[in-house]
Amino acid sequence: MAISDLPSSEIANYFHEHPETARALLSESQDKRFTPSSFISEEADGFRVGWFTKDAKRECVQKFTDLPDAATDYLLFSLGKGRLTAKAPKPQELADRAERLLSGSYGGWDVDDYEHLNPKDPHLRELWHKSMMVGGLPEEWARLDEAKKDELRGIIRNLRQLGIRTR
Questions:
Q1: How far apart are CA 34 and CA 30, in angstroms?
Q2: Number of domain units in the chain
Q3: pLDDT for 68-93, tens place per residue?
Q4: In this structure, are residues 81 and 72 in contact, taking their beta carbons and an 8 Å threshold?
Q5: Distance between CA atoms of 64 and 61, rounded to whole angstroms?
Q6: pLDDT for 18-60, tens place per residue?
Q7: Which of 43, 136, 154, 165 is the least buried, fewest Cβ under 10 Å from its Cβ?
Q8: Domain range holding 111?
Q9: Would the pTM count as exceeding 0.90?
Q10: Contact 35, 52 (CB under 8 A)
Q11: How far apart are CA 40 and CA 61, in angstroms?
């Protein structure tokens, strides 16, 4: 039986037990010279899996903290067998991300990651959505007037309080 015929949880277990195979998939993706195609990339803060369009834009990007889970998602996505669901952000993590954006101390894919979060938890989703409505585009938050920044700080406080209540 091919690894791709296994359920996603067993594929992930396989990549955890055989990290060299996951690393080989990462190398294979980096060697691709055509678009459109799926990709897996290693970043400073983890791994990203998604789709390169014909004009080499990244779409459908998911972020993973470990290579075995990223490799699982890459394999499934490449074969048209769905996606491995990235772990849902915790309130504290969402608050930390928003705070970095507000302070202007973000980098890499932080803005895109935040814009595409759309948390499944209704309380998190409401606060995330509210932050986007109040602040507009996250890359512009550092340049907002103080009143808008204070509104965002309030949302960040609410996120942190939500994290305390859900522990």
A1: 11
A2: 2
A3: 999 999 999 898 888 887 667 789 98
A4: no
A5: 10
A6: 999 999 999 988 888 777 889 999 988 789 998 888 887 888 8
A7: 165
A8: 91-165
A9: no
A10: yes
A11: 9
